[in-house]
Design a protein that fits this description.
metal-binding, APOBEC/CMP_deaminase_Zn-bd, alpha+beta, 4-stranded mixed beta sheet, tRNA-specific adenosine deaminase, binds zinc ion, zinc ion binding, zinc
Length: 157
């Protein structure tokens, strides 16, 4: 097995264990830095009643806590399934160097985890989306942005 295949096997094992324990769906993730697994996570949506507790998000939180950093520079992320739109967003924010996945989103859709509608929704104009969204004008909100811009000694990310 290649090193990538070995790490992917770990991601799958974590997902399998979580699924069998009833924590959530069949999804696992490990994050690797310098050829070492620094974090792993399974889907814990059911165990924690947290719809954002996808394996990738769980692993990213653990890796960032371990590294004491909000960036995963120099890391590789191994997900047992192609990341959903939420996880893709989280992965882009975390900025690992590379993502590997095994099952595809088509494989996930075939067992009832279909995120195609989210991709479709995001491509639609706001007024045509199924989720109602409305922009409320607020001076306070834009003032908060102005204060951030003027704030000294801030960390950009
Ligand atoms: Zn996800």
């Amino acid at each position: 097995m290649t090193r990538e295949e070995i790490f992917m096997q770990q991601a799958i094992a974590v997902g399998l264990e979580g699924m069998r324990a009833g924590k959530g769906g069949p999804f696992g993730c490990v994050i690797v830095q310098n050829n070492q697994i620094i974090a792993s996570g399974c889907n814990t949506v059911l165990a924690t009643n947290d719809p954002t507790a996808h394996a990738e998000v769980v692993a990213i939180r653990q890796a960032c806590a371990y590294l004491q950093s909000f960036q995963l520079t120099g890391c590789e992320l191994y997900a047992s399934c192609e990341p959903c739109p939420m996880c893709m967003g989280a992965i882009y924010w975390a900025r690992p160097d590379k993502v590997y996945f095994a099952n595809t989103k088509a494989d996930a859709a075939a067992i009832g985890f279909d995120d195609a509608f989210i991709y479709e929704e995001m491509a639609r104009p706001m007024h045509l989306r199924k989720l109602s969204m409305q922009c409320l004008d607020s001076t306070n909100a834009i003032e908060m942005f102005a204060e951030w811009q003027e704030k000294g000694n801030k960390t950009l990310y």
